[in-house]
Write a structure and sequence with these properties.
14 strands; alpha+beta; about 240 residues
Amino acid sequence: MESVPVRCPACGRDHAYSTPAYPCPCGEPTAPPLLRGAPAVRVAHRSWNDVWVTVRCASCAREDQWPQPELCCPCGSVLRIPVRPVATAAARAEPVLPAHIPLPRTAAHPRPAFRPVTIRTGDDAVTAAGRYLTWLGYRDVGRPGAGPASGIDLRGDGVIAHVDSRTRPAALRAVETLWLNALGASAAGVFFSLAGYAEDARACADGVGLPLFVLDLTGTPQPVNGPADELVSTGA
């Protein structure tokens, strides 16, 4: 695990920081590459661009958004640890596919029409989402034993999902939590909501490639971002 010396600009205390590694979907542990020798920056105000950094997996070359490395100093300061930037796709002369353009359907066999479940309760919403994941091609989809407190309402072979049945839009924190849970489980994450999504939650999901669906009361999920469109087009 990479470690770098970090000095707090507020109190002058020295630290040794090791960045945490998360599993890439290919299974390889991946961590943001730290920029050795660059001074840490004290966090005064947060913005969306400060929260995430682009990281390329050394094994499969996949690029994803990862949490910006930070350190909490005992003096109370939060320090942002600089990372080495990833070269752009253009600089590497590689073709790039915009994330918001749905891919052609490449499922091995055409799927039959989806049969929805009318939603009257929160349990109905979870049932409808589980049926939809199975329709997309995920196998062995069911409710995990840990229950809703874990933040995971459905789990299948290679997928976990959260189903938000509340009457207000899903928040940024819920989307971040599902994405991190999916990274930790080396699985795809899929989010379902009855009331839509806050603007920053949608921006986060777009940035990390997390599919978002809205459930109407007929129990039919509708994709609301590019990753969800692609999942519907390609299947699991």
